[in-house]
Write a structure and sequence with these properties.
Chain A: Pfam families: Prenyltrans. Chain A: One of its GO terms (biological process) is protein localization to membrane. Chain A: It catalyses: geranylgeranyl diphosphate + L-cysteinyl-[protein] = S-geranylgeranyl-L-cysteinyl-[protein] + diphosphate. Chain A: This is Geranylgeranyl transferase type-2 subunit beta. The complex is a heterodimer. Chain A is mainly α. Chain A folds into two domains: 96 residues, no CATH class; 146 residues, Glycosyltransferase, CATH 1.50.10.20. Chain A is 51% helix and 2% strand. Chain A has eleven helices and two strands; from the N terminus they run ααααββααααααα. In chain A, strands 1-2 form a two-stranded antiparallel sheet. In chain A, α1 runs antiparallel to α3 and α9 runs parallel beside α11. The longest helix of chain A is centred in the first third of the chain and has 17 residues. The model of chain A has no long low-confidence stretch (mean pLDDT 93). A nine-stranded mixed beta sheet of chain B has the order 11-12-13-14-15-16-17-18-19, with no helix packed on it. In chain B, strands 1, 4, 6, 7 and 9 form a five-stranded antiparallel beta sheet that branches. Chain B has a five-stranded mixed beta sheet with strand order 3-2-10-8-5, with no helix packed on it. Chain B is an alpha/beta fold. Among the domains of chain B are: 158 residues, Protein prenylyltransferase (Serine Threonine Protein Phosphatase 5, Tetratricopeptide repeat, Alpha Horseshoe); 139 residues, Sandwich (Immunoglobulin-like), CATH 2.60.40; 169 residues, Leucine-rich repeat, LRR (right-handed beta-alpha superhelix), CATH 3.80.10. The longest helix of chain B has 26 residues. Classes of the chains: A mainly alpha, B alpha/beta. At the A-B interface, α2, α8, α10 and α11 of A face α1, α3, α5, α7 and α9 of B.
């Protein structure tokens, strides 16, 4: 039974990759790089990464590489930190990081750090703690974390901490499981989890479980399976996952 | 998008969708071509507007529009500027109609506004519309904070706005959250009407009751209420909580060229080998700036300046526990003479908490040291003989001299103002009904703990610990989904109860083998079989040298956060006394618990004196996920330098991924006795590896090497 389900999942992912003309596909064309990350890592988990044409994927990724070091979501689009991480992650997955100039990518990310430690998504200046996580995660993979101002980056993330122990997009922003994953992840990679109020945040996170057993992203909102990832992985990072039932 | 179930498409729908796809695809291709060729004509702009109306998530199109604005601005006069920006705002509004959660759309609007365009009324009107459409839209709330800051709308006015919103529907977490942000700022800058926190908080308690009591399952008010409690009890200034030796202690050292002492015992071979006496200071929060100027140690014994070290598990310069080692070997101590050591803390400025508060009230600790001649046999741990943990090797203690440093229970609790206690007291009356309501019981438990925390030592009001322990047990049944949360809280409180005074500690204190009060006494604190799932109260255990925590349900020995912390916006304060504070600890039994990874033993690395460790019958090597991984200082968390070379030599052909964590923990320890039997990881390979890592080891798994 387990085999059948895995087989179905594999076919689903491969079919999405091919079905570039459906409306869903077209409307998400600009973030294909993210889609590649989610789809390919899933294949890897299923042990089926070899069903993909590595060279085709890699050359497509390279074609999304801009001269400033960033990567776009798809061919013809502008570079952005979101797609830069996905590109690096996929190349790392295939062990092809040597095909890019790591220093160039690093410089792109370094150029996006602001004075207060925050990170912009691109040259147009949108600031969000998601980008802090992306920068830290990406540079950690490239082994160049020391090129950014880590102390300021951590300070900025902590400035986004709320009354409930959670984190928002920007200072004063409401706690949200996705943002919490990003902030906790960034603090984990930089060895700064002692600055997280683990008991308070742990309680907020374990209360995301609703009566049906699913998880929501904020109090009094509907559950969604994506929150299972953001909430559970956050709980694991702060060692409070045992506070939630397994049912 | 969330909440939309997937349904298979009908044939008509399929073809309609197919046509839509083609149209969008064509739009996007044309747009990308215009973008590539930097075409900013009206036609091109209209095309991008059409695209964004259908697909506001196409981020490159928003970039393009900004480029177009910049391009067209430079070529025009200031009259048409306004209409240029107006057009952008219109495009944003249309896009938001399609998807009011589009990051790109909201950011574009911010970009336009930051150019100095638009009016307050216009933006507030837009926000009010969005509030009606979805009161929890965090993009709209973020934008509101952006606009009010940009247009300098007062925090007081915004506070009134949250009241308006909550008035419409109390179930608006976003509004309560915003309220906490606004109040924090108003408190911080002591704005008019907000300088007396008490009055404001008392009103807020009444206000949030509507959210808590109307629907007990609605979480909107829970976290706000908890925040109010924290604001009521928190103490900003760093203060000393406990120390070892404690004030008034008498330490008797035995001469004969070896340093053994009542309360220091022969267990502590490290201290007698190095001839050092530790002095441990434990604060109520992490501090920096503890040095020989801010902590002045006066004694005829001391010739040189002392170097205080922060006990931090991640090599930080701030810590809750600081230690200094007095080099007794260098001092010429006369026999039978009593020396006094006086420690003055905080008489000069410099000790600071993480959010900038200076040390509270200056304090002083005095203890005495005396040297006698009697020499006694070293005990098991030092001679390489097996340390026994069996019941018959321990004898209960009936009585203990106050001045004996072996069991110290002297704690400094900061005094608090009356209004805190009154406020908590009053709140308690609102939660005391006997309904089977989870949030009421949990809140009552928290309030009672707060009350006990605030009660001054001399006023021995009826302690509420028993009542709260009962509440947690009831909660485990009432809310089984979160039973381990309540169990952890229960364990913490139980430990607090046991370690709070000498009277409560004595029943758990035992003499080991031949020890007694008159001869080299040392005491084992035996806390086994208490169903403890969590450790805590380390600030009360600085004196412990031998500790038995076996047969519990512990998963880690981590730094603990006490129930009430500071949640200042900006920087945080950590209540982090972990096992690393127990600098005298020499023998530790953690067998028959639930330790699932070596990283869970991280704090042990700071225990210089640890010689005997029993971690048998745990779950080391049984779990594929390590929940302590990033909480332990390690190369993965970029906070530790790892001795790769030595590791590679010792590891040899064994699996590095299996052993690197064990190496991380053990390579800096000087254990003489280790028991790891009964763990999945402990096969022959591992045993021979660990023996190489620990050259001082004499006993492994209860067998001599």
């Amino acid at each position: 039974m387990g085999e059948l389900v895995a087989e179905k999942r594999l076919r689903y992912i491969l079919s999405i990759e091919k079905k570039k003309d459906s409306f869903e596909s077209v409307v998400m064309e600009h973030l294909r790089m993210n889609g590649a990350y989610w789809g390919l890592t899933t294949l890897d988990l299923l042990g089926k990464l070899d069903t993909v044409d590595v060279d085709e994927v890699v050359s497509w990724i390279i074609s999304c590489h801009h001269h400033d070091g960033g990567f776009a979501g798809n061919v013809g689009h502008d570079p952005h930190i979101l797609y830069t991480l996905s590109a690096v992650q996929v190349l790392a997955l295939f062990n092809k990081l040597h095909l890019i100039d790591a220093d160039k990518v690093t410089n792109y990310i370094v150029s996006l750090q602001n004075e207060d430690g925050s990170f912009s998504g691109d040259i147009w200046g949108e600031v969000d703690t998601r980008f802090s996580y992306i920068a830290i995660c990406c540079l950690s993979i490239l082994r160049r974390l020391d090129r950014i101002n880590v102390e300021n980056a951590v300070k900025y993330i902590i400035s986004c901490k709320n009354m409930d122990g959670g984190f928002g997009c920007t200072p004063g922003g409401e706690s949200h499981a996705g943002q919490i994953f990003c902030c906790v992840g960034a603090l984990a990679i930089t060895g700064s989890l002692d600055l997280v109020d683990k008991d308070l945040l742990g309680w907020w996170l374990c209360e995301r479980q609703v009566k049906s057993g699913g998880l929501n992203g904020r109090p009094e909102k509907l559950p969604d399976v994506c929150y299972s990832w953001w909430v559970l992985s956050s709980l694991i990072m702060i060692d409070r996952v045992h506070w939630i039932s397994k049912g | 998008m969330h909440g939309r179930p997937r349904k298979p498409l009908k044939e008509e729908d399929e073809s309609v969708l197919s046509a839509k796809a083609e149209k969008l695809h064509s739009l996007q291709s044309q747009f990308l071509a215009n973008h590539q060729n930097r075409i900013y004509t009206k036609e091109a702009l209209d095309l991008s507007a059409k695209l964004l109306e259908i697909n506001p998530e196409c981020y490159t199109a928003w970039n393009y529009r900004k480029l177009a604005v910049q391009h067209n601005l430079s070529e025009s006069n200031s009259d048409s500027d306004a209409s240029l920006f107006d057009q952008e705002l219109k495009v944003v509004e249309n896009a938001l109609k399609k998807n009011f959660k589009s990051y790109g759309a909201w950011h574009h609007r911010k970009w336009v506004l930051s150019k100095g365009h638009s009016s307050i009324d216009n933006e507030l009107r837009l926000l009010n519309d969005f509030q009606k459409a979805d009161a929890r839209n965090f993009h709209a709330w973020n934008y509101r904070r952006f606009v009010t800051a940009l247009m300098k709308i007062s925090d007081e006015d915004e506070l009134k706005y949250t009241e308006k919103v909550i008035g419409v529907n109390f179930s608006n977490y976003s509004a309560w959250h915003n309220r906490s942000v606004l109040l924090s700022t108003l408190f911080k800058r002591k704005a008019e009407g907000f300088s007396h926190k008490e009055k404001v908080l008392q009103e807020e308690y009444k206000y949030v009751h509507s959210a808590i009591f109307t629907d007990s399952d609605d979480q909107s008010g829970w976290f706000y209420h908890l925040w109010l409690i924290d604001q009521t009890v928190k103490n900003d200034a760093p203060l000393l909580v406990s120390s070892w030796p404690s004030h008034g202690a008498n330490i008797t050292l035995n001469g004969n060229n070896s340093l053994h002492g009542s309360g220091l015992s022969l267990l502590n071979s490290t201290l007698s080998d190095t001839k050092t006496l530790p002095v441990i200071l434990c604060f109520n929060q992490a501090v920096e700036g503890v040095n020989s100027s801010t902590v002045v140690v006066k004694s005829e014994l001391l010739k040189e300046d002392l170097v205080w070290k922060p006990l931090s598990t991640n090599n930080s310069s701030t810590a809750q526990v600081w230690v200094v080692y007095l080099n007794m070997g260098n001092m010429k101590l006369q026999l039978s003479k009593t020396y006094s050591i006086e420690i003055n803390i905080g008489h000069s400025m410099g000790i600071l908490s993480s959010n900038g508060y200076h040390y509270g009230a200056p304090s002083q600790i005095t203890f005495e040291v005396c040297v006698q001649t009697a020499y006694t046999e070293p005990v098991d741990g030092q001679r390489g003989k097996l340390t026994s943990w069996k019941d018959n090797d321990f004898r209960k203690i009936d009585h203990f001299e106050e001045s004996n440093p072996a069991v110290s229970a002297d704690h400094h609790i900061p005094t608090t103002s009356n209004w805190c206690m009154e406020a908590i007291d009053e709140e308690i009356t609102n939660f005391q009904d006997l309904s089977d309501c989870k949030i009421r019981k949990l809140t009552l438990a928290r309030l009672l703990i707060a009350l006990d925390l605030l009660s001054p030592q001399h006023d021995k009001r009826k302690n509420h610990t028993e009542e709260v322990l009962k509440l947690y047990t009831e909660l485990m049944k009432l809310d089984p989904t979160h039973s381990l949360y309540y169990k952890d809280e229960h364990s913490l409180l139980l430990l607090q109860q046991i370690t709070s005074s000498r009277e409560s500690l004595i029943p758990y204190c035992h003499y080991y083998k031949d020890a007694s009060e008159t001869n080299t006494s040392y005491v084992c604190l035996r806390l086994q079989n208490l169903s403890l799932s969590r450790m805590g109260s380390f600030e009360n255990l600085l004196w412990v040298q031998m500790l038995d925590l076996s047969h519990n349900e512990l998963r880690s020995i981590e730094a603990v956060t006490i129930a009430f912390k500071k949640l200042e916006k900006g920087l945080t304060v950590n209540f982090l006394t972990g096992l690393e504070a127990m600098q005298l600890l020499s023998c530790l039994n953690l067998s028959h618990n639930k330790f699932g990874s070596f990283t869970a033993l991280g704090p042990l690395r700071l225990l210089k004196s640890l010689k005997v460790l029993n971690i048998s019958c745990n779950e080391l090597g049984s779990h594929s996920i390590d929940t302590r991984r990033y909480l332990c200082s390690s190369p993965l968390a970029h906070s530790e330098v790892f001795a790769w070379d030595r590791f590679e030599i010792l590891c040899g052909s064994y699996s590095a991924t299996k052993f690197w964590e064990a190496f991380l923990i053990f390579e800096s320890l000087n254990l003489t006795d280790l028991n790891i039997a009964g763990n999945a990881v402990a096969d022959e390979n591992f045993a021979s590896f660990i023996v190489k890592v620990l050259p001082t080891l004499k006993l492994l798994n209860d067998e001599e090497l």
